[in-house]
Amino acid sequence: MSEVAATGISVLLVDDHPIVRQGYRRVLESQGDLHVVAEADNAADAYGAFKAHDPDVVLLDISMPGASGLEAIRNIRARSPRARILVFTMHNEAVLVKAAFGAGASGFVTKSSEPSAVVGAIRAVARGERAMSDDIAHILAEDSLSAGSALDQLGEREIEILRQFAGGATTEQIAAHLNLSVKTVQNYHYLIKTKTGARTDAQLVRLAATCGLTRI
Amino acid sequence: MSEVAATGISVLLVDDHPIVRQGYRRVLESQGDLHVVAEADNAADAYGAFKAHDPDVVLLDISMPGASGLEAIRNIRARSPRARILVFTMHNEAVLVKAAFGAGASGFVTKSSEPSAVVGAIRAVARGERAMSDDIAHILAEDSLSAGSALDQLGEREIEILRQFAGGATTEQIAAHLNLSVKTVQNYHYLIKTKTGARTDAQLVRLAATCGLTRI
DNA sequence: TTGCAGCTCGGGCAAATTTCCCAAGCCGGA
DNA sequence: TCCGGCTTGGGAAATTTGCCCGAGCTGCAA
User: Fold this and answer.
1) Nearest CA in chain B to A24
2) Where in this protein does the record say 4-aspartylphosphate is found (chains A, B) (predicted)?
């Protein structure tokens, strides 16, 4: 398996942009101790590549079309709990970060990070540590002072209302469909936002979509 | 001026992600005839770097925070009509492509393109030709045949605000990024809803996602 | 049995936002 | 030149949000 660990760190690159992958590959391999052993351009291929190459670290961009990157994390971790997955994306929303860690990611760095920080994070997760970039740490820290946790903290009713809301239903339509007062739906709406840490309706929709609650 | 043209093509890289820039630099410079003479991480710095280095080609990612990338194109072209700007982004919405060419871009390639296609496009625009990747050509072709998407009725400013909104930004954040008053952003928000027929914010996010304006 | 905890459902009320309508500056085309 | 469209924002009423509250249920544990 990861016999290369003695001589360096093997990395699986998952990103849907070919030139971006090639760029990362060159940046990483110029480090000396990092070796890109495989690439994948979608979540579905990611697990196959993981199984075939058993890399020390998976560098994963979760903003991919098609299947959710979160699903890819869960997929890989479910079959290989030892897998080290470093999420690498331009998104920096607290709900996404928490969802990624909840799905089993070992680290989360944004593309705004300096290359040295990214490389450092790869080495950290390869050592089994948890890693995140400074901006992510700040976002999580601020978030933890105000909000609770992610989507699985929601009750059944809240999930149902979130699903309909994210599907495009108005408050009135949800209330009519569930035989609730508009006020109750509004209260659930507010409750869902505070529970998930979403600051806007758009973030709520994105969260619902990334968690597979709704399809877009 | 561009005396390096005899020995190669000088390129200015504009992208807000440091590691992405570094990756592109390595990919381009491995070609032999391409030289990255400068980098910028925002639209404001892009023109300064352009003036200082007079590159043959500007490789520009228009999905940057702060001022619109389209503005950067117009900025550079207004002062240096000979500038060759190759837009390089993960977005592939027809309205964006048309807006970019309308603003004075010489080419448009997506990050889904093969590196060889990107390099080919750089050489093409350096020769003064117009260039676009295959997927963009298909999208433009289909668009010219169809009645047009819901986003076609939106102005460039509206598109930019919709993108940021659907990406999860708050009204205040959008206003700060674009140097607008909160009131103006609110007005755009309302205008976008009425123009597209969206009744809720969630529908707006879904619309933006289905049109490729934002990715979830 | 009592009691606690958590979900569900809604009222209340101040603060914020949305919804429209309007106006002014700018720019490009007829 | 005039018209139309884009951009930017003010104003004011209507609506929603943010956050507090209580009350009825259920399940579970002491």
Assistant:
1) B23
2) 61
